[in-house]
Design goal:
Elements lengths: L1 H13 L8 H24 L4 H28 L1 H18 L8
Helix pairs in contact: 1-3, 2-3
């Protein structure tokens, strides 16, 4: 989660125009995840293990994988345009190397 989050923020700092496509991540996923992780850390530091805190901790642990996947999906989506461009370039290059016209594919 941290690695994907750092990757997203690094890419957005290099390419601020991509921020619009990351609106949901920036306005919901990131702040909500930070809030949950801070709550988890506070619960760990509390030293008290009542039923409510135990249930909250378990729910955060259960959802941490889902949160991490959403971060990874968001990071991957930042590169979707580049991936399409590269795939197109590879197809054209392959066609030229093999002597085929693009229309014949």
């Amino acid at each position: 989660m941290v690695k994907a989050g750092d990757g997203i923020l690094a890419e957005l700092s290099k390419n601020p125009t991509k921020a619009r496509s990351m609106r949901r991540f920036l306005t919901y996923y990131l702040p909500t995840s930070v809030k949950l992780m801070e709550g988890y850390a506070m619960q760990q530091d509390a030293g008290y293990q009542g039923e409510n805190l135990k249930e909250i901790k378990e729910r955060i642990e259960t959802n941490a994988e889902t949160i991490a996947r959403s971060f990874e999906t968001s990071l991957d989506s930042l590169y979707a345009g580049e991936a399409i461009d590269i795939s197109s370039d590879i197809a054209v290059l392959d066609s030229m190397v093999n002597g085929k016209s693009i229309k014949n594919q």
